[in-house]
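Hey, I'm writing a tutorial for new members on how sequence and structure tokens pair up, and I'd like a real worked example in the thread rather than a made-up one. If someone can provide the structure for the chain below, I'll link this post from the tutorial.
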Amino acid sequence: MATRLENRMNQLLSDKEQKKLIKLNIGHDAKFIIFSDLHRGLWDKADDFSNLNQASYFKALSHYIENDFVLIHLGDIEELKENWSIKNVLEKNTIHLNKEAEFHKKNRYFRVFGNHDSQYENQNTVNEHLHKYFPGLTVYEGILLQYGHLPDILLTHGHQGYLPIVTNLFEYIGLPLYRWWLNDVVNKNRTVNYESYCDIEKDENAFYNWTSKQKNLILIFGHTHRPLWGGSTVVDSYEKKLQVEVSNLKQVAETNKISISTLKLNPVFYGVQAIIEKINEYVAVIKKKMAENGVCRAPKPLPIIFNTGCCIFKDGDITGIEIDKAYIKLIKWGINKEKNVIEKVVLEESYIGNLVLD
């Protein structure tokens, strides 16, 4: 028996009239930047989208508008469940909306709704509130990018497994109360960050199972706030890098017929200083990420699923997915502490044509 998520995703993908799914036939030179989960609200203690996040995001938008990218918002852009007044939230974030409107003026802007801005599923709500910034905009549940000679790429927020009562009743009543509690009762900044919860694997595995039944399809979603690269987490990625360096170290030990311990005692003499430094670096990152995220594990690396992550990391970083001339990239924008500047880092990259699909 199909799950709710499977039913909704099947319905979305089969939307021939394109009422919920817009299909874009794109060329090899197409360039997209996909961000999700800004959760921007009223800039108060309950707002996840901090000043540091905003600075990273604004710098990123400037880069992408200058370099002719299409901006895709993949849901939960405004936090409309904690804040009942859409007008107040939009007015507070005019600086970002005006910047995003530059993409729309050049016909380079698309938006998908999520569970925290599901009000935009209603076109009348979009007309009333968003058309001031994005005239004629339609907000979809999904976007299908079609190259023709490469796999199709489906974009959606990732809350399709939720029951309507959760998004339309529980969140709509519970989250404003939570915001009121933080702001007016305990007078405390928000400390909850969804990336710390291991139950996000339920969403990842649900989408993994659905995607495994599709043909020649890549899925990109958001919602969980945890970046995924082809089904692998950041921890998985660093563990692979660690394995390579450990293998290199073992090879040097075997060539010189000595133990690993001896190599570590004389790293400069045996030319393994850089290898050991990388091993120590990767181990430190893995320990840090495991402490932040628990012992969560993503699905198997096939089929191909990606997650944008989010724009509300506590250190001011934001993550997203770029598609640039048929290359898909997991990127991060944030402060380079050594240079004291905000810059982009490409975390992972692959040519779409090289991705192996079932």
